[in-house]
Write a structure and sequence with these properties.
Length: about 725
């Protein structure tokens, strides 16, 4: 054959194999993407040997599994999540591979995304980060994390989406859809009940069925059913005595009740037993042993629970291939959705658009907690000398924190962004004030504090930028916090700064607040979570009014730790073996409202540089049948002078119930963007689902007839109007 002839044939074959084009009869059905996916899966499965099926369902490196090379089914690659695509690691270990082309865009932490209460931004986060996963050759994105914020001690709260199941579930579903629009599977984690890091590898969670279904599962359910997640990761902890990565109860809920058709993946090292992994729905095993090299042959991938031990058991007749076929089928489905999908886009990395996406999320995630005397936004020309104090003004917060550690291409520091924004309109000085250096050195800490105080005496305005970082025992995987006080002795600096009686703005970072007995004396406070690559820019834009803040708290900020139900009535961290969630369904605002405790800042709270007026809600009906959809419309007006966004919240209370119910539960939210003087309507729909509770007596969701009250508010504690209706018998 002449060279031009072979080139012609290659081009012809490629063309014929493209989507929507007729495929030659010789192309096997599993490669023919004009056939239905399930047919292709059947065909591929029928061609596979027992050994190939076994190989498909467990790792052959730290983050990949081999696919089926003989059939041209490629390796499957996963990477963390959630703040950015993790750097490349060594084949067999957690060590960095030392690549120089794997830095990424750092997105704001998921808590910040949750604080936006913005569905479009959640989708945008998913689409944007998904493009980076895709460009980096990943098929599974190990994000979003959606475990409920049960208490402020959990080290991984920053990777999750707050205390309310509806808010977390809606935003997670959008993020999943965005990620998967790239032909990359979102892997929702950690299913289920990972609410603390202390004892995470063994602790057994004892929780009522009702709290499980009403609080801890709904976000997963939404991400699976509405988001259509293609993968779910198990948690390390136990539930009903069984490890969550192969738990018969959780597996039944996921695969039977919710009809999840994707891949259930172990957390890295979360598999503990072959028999349970086989029977209880574990589809892919990752990270069981550190490696197959330094720890020797005994720890190689062949020894994974779903590897040789499983193969052996099938050969000895202890299992049929029924479970194996189901697992392989699910992994193949994942392949056809991702790395066998020739239509998926190419993705992109570190694009200007991605930086803009990260910045847009953070701008809406920052929460204006208080603003006495309208100190914010700042007009630099009013102040001759501005002093910035605090380590987090100049400290990388995209680093550390465990598996979500990000090698960001860059991270804009708040101090640099503030200097850029102020320009020549005022002088800006910076003093660190405190340090998180470990081990603490009292002499260093004292001198940093004194330097800051000396500079503050000369300043006209102080901006303190502190809070947590991602060091062990702060916001990080594997460790919980050890106390609720201000970290790194920064409260001592703050106390003294407050005494100087200068205008002072406090900016805190982190997933969790800390005790602030002196906060009443601080006029302006912002909470900024972790802002990612453009965190500094977004913060400066809020401080100086380029951006009107519109974030609201996705968690309750307690006055003291004992105001949290999990701490006051539940158990934390348990006795090393078990932890009892005695607070039951009363998590976050559901607890403080029941106990009439005033939090420092309530769930749903966040201020703006403008003001909003809420008109009376209109109900489409005041009597509702079980099959009806009740519509609630609320006119909201911007009554101030600046354009702004308002998150209108709908809470519901069940007045006549056979079971105790929370005083209020979030059942809807709408984020409106309003010009000065503009009015728009927020519309909510209520069905029997929103009225239901999980009845343990029947194992069903039940909406009981009787009176319900709708509360429309700007936060859970700032209710502007109420209205009631009745559900008919
Ligand atoms: C974490 C997961 C993570 C995995 C892979 C585990 O330790 O719990 O969230 O995705 O490691 O890095």
């Amino acid at each position: 054959m002449k060279p031009y002839q072979s080139i012609f044939i290659i081009i012809l074959c490629n063309w014929m194999a493209g989507a929507g084009t007729p495929v030659a009869a010789s192309v096997p059905p599993y490669l023919n993407d004009s056939l239905p996916m399930e047919e292709r899966i059947d065909d591929a499965l029928a061609r596979m040997t027992l050994e190939e099926k076994i190989a498909l369902i467990h790792a052959h490196s730290k983050f990949s599994s081999p696919g089926v090379p003989r059939l041209g089914i490629p390796e499957i690659w996963a990477a963390d999540g959630p703040q950015g695509v993790r750097e490349e690691l060594m084949w067999d270990s957690w060590d960095t591979a030392g690549h120089t082309n794997d830095s990424c865009t750092a997105y704001p932490a998921l808590m910040s995304l949750a604080a936006t209460w913005n569905r479009d931004l959640a989708y945008r986060y998913g689409r944007s980060i998904g493009e980076e996963f895709r460009y980096r050759g990943k098929d599974i994105a190990l994000t979003p994390g959606i475990n409920i914020y049960r208490h402020p001690m959990c080290g991984r709260n920053f990777e999750y989406m707050g205390e309310d199941p509806l808010l977390a579930g809606i935003l997670a579903s959008e993020a999943v859809k965005g990620i998967q629009s790239n032909g990359v599977a979102a892997c929702v984690k950690h299913f289920a009940l990972n609410n603390q890091e202390t004892d995470r590898h063994q602790v057994n969670v004892i929780v009522s069925d009702r709290a499980l279904h009403e609080i801890y599962l709904p976000a997963f359910k939404k991400a699976v059913i509405e988001g259509g997640a293609w993968a779910v990761m198990g948690a390390y902890n136990r539930y009903k005595g069984q490890f969550a990565c192969h738990n018969e109860y959780l597996n039944k809920i996921l695969k039977e009740d919710w009809q999840f058709d994707g891949v259930f993946i172990s957390d890295w090292g979360g598999t503990e037993d072959t028999e349970q992994a086989v029977r209880n729905g574990l589809d892919m095993e990752f990270g069981t042993y550190t490696d197959g090299l330094s720890s020797g042959e005994a720890n190689a991938y062949d020894h994974y629970y779903l590897a040789r031990p499983y193969l052996q058991a099938i050969k000895e007749g202890r299992f049929t291939t029924r479970e194996l076929d189901d697992k392989a089928r699910r992994v193949l489905r994942l392949c056809f959705r991702t790395n066998m999908n020739r239509q998926r886009p190419f993705g992109s990395l570190n694009s200007p658009q991605h930086a803009a996406d990260a910045q847009a999320i953070q701008e809406e995630g920052i929460v204006l907690l208080k603003n006495e005397g309208a100190l914010l936004p700042l007009e630099p020309a009013q102040y001759g000398k501005i002093l910035v104090v605090g380590e987090n003004a100049d400290f990388m917060l995209t680093k550390w924190g465990g598996s979500s550690n990000v090698k960001a291409r860059y991270e804009m520091m708040p101090i640099d962004a503030i200097r850029n924004r102020v320009g020549s309109r005022a002088t800006v000085e910076y003093r660190k004030g405190y340090t998180s250096d470990w081990p603490p050195q009292p002499a260093v800490q004292d001198s940093l504090r004194e330097e800051a105080l000396a500079a503050a005496r000369q300043a006209d305005l102080i901006i303190f930028i502190g809070g947590h970082n991602k060091y062990p025992n702060h916001d990080t995987e594997s460790y919980d916090r050890t106390g609720s006080g201000a970290p790194f002795r920064q409260d001592e600096v703050l106390e003294e700064l407050v005494r100087l009686r200068r205008p002072i703005v406090l900016v805190t970072m982190g997933a969790n607040q800390f005790d602030m007995p002196w906060s009443d004396r601080i006029p302006a406070m912002l909470h900024a979570w972790y802002g990612g690559s453009e965190g500094g820019t977004a913060l400066a834009d809020v401080l100086f009014g380029r951006v009107n803040p519109s974030g609201k708290l996705p968690v309750t900020f307690y006055r003291q730790l004992t105001d949290c139900g999990a701490i006051a009535e539940g158990e934390y961290p348990g006795d090393g073996q078990n932890v009892r969630y005695n607070e039951d369904i009363f998590v976050g605002y559901r607890y403080v409202e029941k106990e009439h405790i005033a939090p420092a800042f309530p769930f749903g709270h966040g201020l703006s540089y403008t003001t909003f007026a809420y008109g009376r809600p209109q109900l489409s009906q005041t009597v509702m049948e079980h099959t009806d959809t009740l519509l609630v419309t609320v006119p909201v007006s911007n009554t101030g002078k600046k354009a702004g966004k308002e998150i209108v919240q709908l809470y519901l209370s069940d007045v006549q119930s056979t079971l105790p119910r929370p005083m209020k539960e979030l059942k809807g939210f709408v984020k409106l963007s309003l010009e000065p003087g503009e009015t728009q309507e927020a519309t909510f729909s209520i069905t029997a689902e929103e009225l239901s509770f999980y009845d343990e007596r029947t194992g069903c969701w039940t909406a009981e007839p009787g009176k319900f009250v709708i509360h429309i508010g700007a936060s859970s504690a700032d209710i502007r109007h109420t209205a009631s209706f009745r559900l008919k018998e």
